[in-house]
Write a structure and sequence with these properties.
236 residues; alpha+beta; 9-stranded mixed sheet; 7 helices; 23% strand
């Protein structure tokens, strides 16, 4: 036991000197996050008179940048020991960079893979009108895959037809809609007016009107005799 203690102490002394550190500097670093120790304690570790406890030993390994404890203190070489121990500080830093990259790769890391669940929503085949009005067939749609750029609260998609909502929405653009039965004034939504679907802005000042963003199109005034239904709010 005494012989092994002195071997451990001799190795600790060798590691400290290789780092060009004083016993006082080591004592100060080991004391961070642990009970304060003196440089006298470090001296006794290096002579083998006493041994550091587990927490102190791990702190020393961190200070001396010990990656392979068995190889360093017991001479038990691992398959990668010769290559790693022959590297200088820059080489070890480069190895650390490669290790970080490998950890991020699901092919090489034990880290649990994140399985992204595909999200789908209906895209209506017949477009909502941004011009003269096109019938929106609620039974005719195609399920499309959408990514994380699509707002979470959207649950259906509609392809715009026409240019009455330019410059915000253009002809052929897909807009994403959150289904809801009503809208606030100033909000843009998808409406069905007398059986035809529109993408418009709602205005209620002086009566209900569906407003185009393109000034070349006149507002659509909704008369009391008209049948108006809100499909939802355009959210993306």
């Amino acid at each position: 036991m005494e012989d092994s203690s002195r071997k451990l102490g001799s190795k600790l002394s060798e590691l400290r000197k290789a780092r060009k550190m004083s016993q006082q500097e080591v004592a100060k670093l080991v004391s961070v996050g642990s009970d304060p120790i003196s440089n006298r304690a470090v001296s006794k570790w290096e002579t083998g008179d006493t041994l550091p406890n587990a927490e102190q030993f791990l702190a020393l390994c961190r200070i001396y940048d010990i990656r392979d404890v068995l190889s360093t203190f017991l001479g038990m070489e691992g398959p990668n020991d010769e290559g790693l121990n022959s590297l200088n500080k820059l080489g070890r830093e480069r190895v650390d960079e490669y290790i970080s990259l490998l950890k991020e790769s699901p092919e090489f890391s034990y880290k649990q893979r994140v399985i992204r669940i595909k999200r789908q929503m209906p895209l209506y085949d017949l477009p909502a009108s941004a011009g003269t009005g096109v019938f929106l067939d609620s039974d005719s749609y195609t399920l499309i895959d959408v990514d994380e750029t699509v707002p979470e609260n959207a649950n259906l998609a509609v392809r715009i037809s026409g240019d009455s909502m330019t410059p915000l929405y253009t002809d052929g653009q897909i807009v994403y809609v959150r289904q809801q039965p009503d809208l606030k004034p100033g909000e843009i939504g998808i409406f069905v007016l007398n059986g035809e679907a529109y993408c418009k802005k709602l205005e209620t000042d002086g009566g209900i009107k569906l407003i185009s963003l393109n000034p070349n199109y006149k507002p659509i005034k909704v008369k009391y005799s008209y049948e108006l239904r809100v499909i939802g709010k355009v959210v993306g």
